[in-house]
Design goal:
The structure holds two protein chains of two kinds. By secondary structure, chain A is of the alpha/beta class. Chain A is built from eight helices and nine strands. The chains are: A alpha/beta, B mainly alpha.
């Protein structure tokens, strides 16, 4: 059973005894954690630990047992792992973003696509190309733009910087952190970059073959990481300049 | 005559082009083509009972689409496998129930005077299909890019899947009179496949696919009238020539 830090009175997300199994193979086993609004949760663990499955369970996209409670009125933006898109599919970034706005019929405030594109560092020209022809990094930025267009209060980011070059990665991380401060966003992030975890996370959930661990980033001791990844892991924690 | 032989099939072909765009992008070309085979037992049963074959085809297609949708949801068997087994069986059963000229008509279509209730139904159903694709195109786009992010945008993806499958089935049913079970799937897929090669955005693809479908049907119907032949094979041949002439384009 994971340990739990001091829980606020009304969490934005409360997961209790969350378990997922495919056929008879358990993928997530009785995961419990609770997040206050405005928190940054980093989900870490080796490949195959169930990180993406956890996100999909939180979204209600896979059958699970246990409970997932989101606070009322939560709007979720989701940035999945790199998607398998056919190269010749005639859907542009604009088509994709316009579709996001079009399906949000109840939206009171409609974000401006051009402004969101500037925010994620994607050019207008790139947004008018078919999505199968843009680079992996550009597509990841497009997915972040898509998530932001829904005016989310919670962002679930599944390795959002995979495929993005170093400057782009730093800019995206800084942008997400700035948005979090400005809008009070709650962020759930799957990342293999432990330096990012130390720089931005307020909470950490470690998934591996053993029991899950939940707590502040300070729980990430070399011993815990070595046990989690089954090999020694070096972490160079750095302080982010706010 | 003009409505029966040209305008009604052209309108249906335009709707088929729109439906085909998403069938192509959702990678359900083979599944869609095989789905049309399920109409055959329905036609056979309807003929045996002495009722209009369209009712039999519509009923079987409706339940065929529902069956695919249910099996996709409830089993972990690949859709292509499900479709391959069930609809090949449907073709076999349908061949047993239908015979002679009726079987040939059911397979490749037959030009005939369309009674006005059937024409009215055809136009109304065509309008519903076009309305669905135009109205729900944004949801269909999001669901085909990622079902998970479509869910976060508030889309009921499973319900959308079912409605799309039923619209596909309705499109097949509408074209059976002119193109038959074997050829109707081609008119759904070929114009969309040609349009895809010339399109860099969704709107262009939808407009082009509808226009190519209608164009091939009008031209094929005129040639068929001139040659005194059934229009189905000629329409599909014209659409296929259109696709092949662009197939080696860079």
């Amino acid at each position: 059973m994971p340990s739990t830090p001091d829980a606020p009175p009304s969490p934005i997300l409360d997961a209790r005894e969350l378990s997922v199994a495919f056929d008879t193979t358990p993928v997530l086993d009785h995961i419990s954690f609770s997040l206050p609004a405005g928190a940054s949760l980093a989900v870490i663990g080796p490949n195959g630990a169930g990180k993406t499955v956890l996100f999909r369970a939180l979204l209600g996209a896979v059958p699970h047992t246990g409970t997932v409670r989101w606070a009322p009125g939560v709007r979720i933006g989701y940035v999945p792992q790199k998607l398998d898109i056919e190269r010749d599919i005639p859907i542009t970034g604009r088509d994709f973003l316009t579709a996001r706005l079009a399906v949000d019929r109840a939206a009171v405030e409609r974000p401006d696509i051009a402004a969101v594109l500037r925010l994620v560092g994607l050019s207008e020209d790139t947004s008018r190309k078919p999505i199968g022809t843009i680079s992996g990094g550009q597509f990841q930025r497009l997915l972040v733009a898509f998530a932001l267009l829904g005016n989310p209060t919670v962002l679930l980011l599944d390795e959002p910087t995979a495929g993005i070059d170093q400057p782009g990665e730093e800019r995206l991380n800084a942008m997400l952190h700035r948005l979090q401060e400005e809008r009070g966003l709650t962020i759930l992030l799957i990342s293999h970059e432990l330096t990012i975890v130390h720089a931005y996370a307020t909470h950490v959930l470690c998934l591996g073959s053993g029991p899950a661990f939940f707590g502040p980033p300070s729980i990430l001791t070399p011993d815990l990481l070595a046990n989690l990844y089954r090999e020694p892991v070096s972490v160079h924690a750095h302080t982010h300049a706010h | 005559m003009l409505i029966d032989a040209i305008l009604l099939p052209a309108a249906m072909a335009a709707a088929a082009g729109l439906v085909g765009c998403f069938a192509l992008m959702r990678r359900m070309v083979l599944a869609g083509d095989a789905l049309s085979h399920v109409a055959l037992p329905g036609i056979g049963i309807a003929l045996a009972l002495g009722i209009h074959p369209l009712f039999g085809a519509l009923t079987m297609l409706f339940f065929g689409a529902l069956l695919v949708w249910t099996l996709e949801d409830r089993t972990r068997i690949a859709t292509e496998t499900i479709v391959g087994v069930i609809f090949s069986a449907a073709l076999a059963i349908g061949s047993l129930l239908t015979s002679g000229e009726d079987l040939i008509d059911a397979l490749v279509g037959h030009a005939d005077v369309v009674p006005w209730p059937e024409a009215a139904f055809g136009l109304a159903a065509t309008a519903v299909i076009v309305w669905f694709i135009v109205r729900r195109r944004h949801e269909l786009v999001l669901a085909l890019v990622s079902r998970d992010i479509a869910r976060t945008a508030g889309i009921n993806v499973r319900r959308l899947d079912l409605i799309y499958l039923e619209m596909f089935a309705l499109t097949v049913a509408l074209g059976l009179r002119y193109l038959g079970i074997l050829l109707m799937g081609s008119l759904i897929i070929i114009p969309a496949a040609t349009a895809k090669r010339f399109s860099k955005d969704l709107t262009t693809m939808l407009v082009l696919a509808a226009a190519l479908g209608a164009g091939a049907t009008i031209l094929g119907s005129i040639v068929a009238l001139w040659l005194h032949r059934d229009p189905g094979p000629i329409i599909v041949a014209i659409a296929a020539v259109g696709f092949l002439s662009t197939a080696f384009r860079g």
